[in-house]
Description:
The chain is mainly alpha-helical. 46% of the residues lie in helices and 4% in strands. The chain has 15 helices and seven strands. Helix 10 runs parallel beside helix 12 and helix 14 runs antiparallel to helix 15. The termini are far apart.
Amino acid sequence: MKSTTRFSLTIAYIIISSLLFAQTNTSDLSIKYKNYRSNLVNNYILKIGTNNGNSLPASERQISNHKIKWADATISLGHYLGVLATEYHLLSQKGENTNNTTEELYYAISALYRLDYKAETFYNKGDSLAQLNGFFVRDDINNITIAEYEKLNLSTQIQKVNNFNSDLTDIDPDVGYSLNNEMSKDQVIFLLMGLKLIDKYIPEDLVYKSESETAIINYSSGITSLNLAAKHITILILEYLSSNKSIIGWPIINPVTNKRVKRGYNAFHFQAKAYNNIYEEYTNGSTIYGRCNRLFASIENGLLGAVISPVIKQNQGHMLLTLAAISNQFNDKTQNKLFKYSFKDYKNGGNYEWEPLLHAALYSQETDSLDSKANWYKDFLNQAPANGPYNYKDANLEHQNWSVSRRTTQPESRGNRYNSDAANFNGLDYMLIYNLYLIYYDKKKVQ
């Protein structure tokens, strides 16, 4: 009976796959990008808005259980912020309308402010502890309405959903709330990535106007500039990240429970200098180091610069390389290190080839090494399925490179190593890499 059911599901996956991907058989990357953008807004976001759960992309839609899932939602949010910032820049460069992108960016930034402002309330009954202080939760999705399910299923060609999972609803019975929803180092790093791209590509005078009125970022105490809002929340996050200092560490503490967060609590090791680089840039040279922190950070940074590979082999490459890229952690050696270690073929599948593009786009750095990779990136992007990445398991996938929830952060889980439910993914990884590709290779007039 189990064998029959498994066979039936496999056949269903194949039928769904053929229906979905026969629709757009094209190598035109720009058309694929538009498909992905439409897919994201229609199939993975409850609503563009300010209420709980709004403007937070889900990571996947699972097939066998009809479930839409928010996992590590602030990592997805960081990607989303980066996509919108780079999209705005590319549209502006071509003189095209940016109104929809600006609107989405306003609400996405407001979502981050909401996750920070309300974070403490999820660990204490009532709203008395709500404050904007740099401590945030991963998501605030505890309910989906019938109307929201109808919206998610209205125009989809993939499996419809009728239930959901989020880190907020992963309640620990011993304490009565979710410990898995607390902020952590990886969530911070990818939010910083998106915020840094906003700083780079969004003008300081850009605001969102709703019904001709300039909109204030929710919970921001009056900030209207999207660029300044990104800088302000970056400073708050970095100050909170480093607020619980020991001589050689920065443990992330939940301010309500006064305990270390359950996952990814040690923010300091090997990366303190990178955080401080960003903080100094935004605060005219101020530092987040404490007593002796600068010395230990310098020592660790030197060690890391000499032996990056062992850290990447522990599946830490997505954090290590991304933070190095956005902070220019190794100064004039950063790009060469990123190129060397991102294209290295690790046995654990940890390939992060997009990182040199990220650094080059942020620091306007051109290199012969990257120039020689234009066709490699184009082929890489061409491998992505026309309407969104997926992995239906049982070798039923279009290309191994795009068979995991986030190719940017989980390359080691591609193909048969993927061990979750068969699912379609939100495609933010493709969209971000595509935009970075266009930004860097624009001089070559790529399409």
